[in-house]
Fold this protein.
Amino acid sequence: MVYDDTAAMLKGHPALSQLHLLPRGRQGAWHERLAEERRLFGALRARGYDLVVHLTDHPRGAWLAWALGARWSVAFERPDGKWWWQRAFSHIARQPRGTPRATVERHLDLLRRLGIHPGPEERAPTLAVNTAARASVSDALRAAGWHGEPYAVVHPGSRWMFKVWTAAGNAQVVDHLARLGLSIVLTAAPDARENQLADAIQEKAATRCIDLRGQLTLEELGGVIAGATVFFGVDSVPMHMAAALGTPGVALFGPSSEIEWGPWSERFQVVTSRAHPCRPCGIDGCGGSKRSDCLAQLPAGAVTLALDQVLERHGQR
């Protein structure tokens, strides 16, 4: 059960038989929302689920776990210790205090609380890309000037702009990858700020990019990344998609913690600033300024070196 705008991330996954979708935010009049909740509850009850695994602290999961009467249900403990939360689930998973933990491992703790301990080979996230998305991606690439040559995906933006690197640094990476014989596919969300960043990168770079900004669905973006020789970006959704697809890559981390949110893949390398002991601070830019010095001052040489290492390690040089 996920929000409808993220359904593409799970659609077609071989382990899933049905997706239950929720609208994000309050949509429609109160009686329409109530009717939608009743339809959702009816659909869930009709499936007769034995187990509810709730990954967030949203109250909806608690009342569903209780109302559906599943034999097993598990969620994380809440810091506020609400009694109704404790009563709603058959199992409550505890978390380490003050110790950073990878989000993938943290989520798997819910299974461990039930006595299910995934082995190393079972912990890797996976992402399914359907045949139709792969076909439409090939058409989009060719329409944008691709001729079948190996390419790198560069996704410089993020929903949070304090996580992005400089246009000048990205331009140097684009030119470096081009000198290695790779075409550059530039992707971005249909967002004005991301487009401004991408425009600045293309102005500074000597390399002409295959520009697919704002043209791809999430499924098609997955198809583009799956076909890439290497991925380069920052702490963002496309970075996690690349990791789940097994595409080698390099990701830059600034204020956010690479321990908690880093790409879950041995084929990735994370680059961070060694000159800023204050990171990861979890703040939206230095002092809340929306600009992170730990990223702005990151030298391009450290990034291109990481890309060379990743490409060499995985036999792509």
Notes: The radius of gyration is 21 Å. The chain has a mean pLDDT of 93. Residues 30-47 form the longest helix (18 residues). DSSP finds twelve helices and eleven strands in the chain.
